[in-house]
Amino acid sequence: MPQLIASVKGVEVKHVFLHKDRTTLGRKPENDIVLDTMVVSGSHCAFDLVGVADVFLQDLGSTNGTYVNDRMLKERTQLQDGDVIAIGPYRIKYLQASEEPSSFGGGTHMLSVDPPQLQATLSVKNGSSAGLEMPVVKAVTTFGKPGVCVVSVAHRRGGFFVTHLGGPTAPLLNGAPFSTEPVQLTDSDILELAGTRMQFQLRE
């Protein structure tokens, strides 16, 4: 089954299997694949599934363009296995004939079959939601407010990594700003998103 694996700076942020005849991608929430950054247009591009495994990519008049293997997409084009699609900071690898894992009961956004050895949570430390604990249970979990500040926390073999995905307000880690480069989190780190302070915690 055809699939898309999206990453930012080498950190996988989405893993989508193409079930539908047309899968849309853009910044607006009504898209099938939502990438929340201003360089992605509201309705950016679409993936058309033809037959069992043929996928055609079409740019939907995006502002900044859609690139396939570093070439701007000019017309509806059939994707080839291994093609890399570039949209803003995202790199999306297209795989044509990969089977969907069955061990997750259809959970298409899981990126790792290895169970986590440590349980991670983000605990809100200020504001009206102070005391709220949000578990980081998926391979990639996003936090923040779209259009303001959004980050992802990815669970990889080496630990947990936070990446700034979008929004004009820079997130802070222990009081220092960080960009789209993934940064590894350690126990008790303080993450601040647009004024909301959260403490990262690891438990066995």
TrEMBL record:
InterPro entries the record matches: Cell_Proc_Reg/RNA_Proc (IPR050923), FHA_dom (IPR000253), SMAD_FHA_dom_sf (IPR008984)
Pfam families: FHA (PF00498)
Limits of the FHA domain: 23-73
Domain of life assignment: Bacteria
Protein name per Swiss-Prot or TrEMBL: FHA domain-containing protein
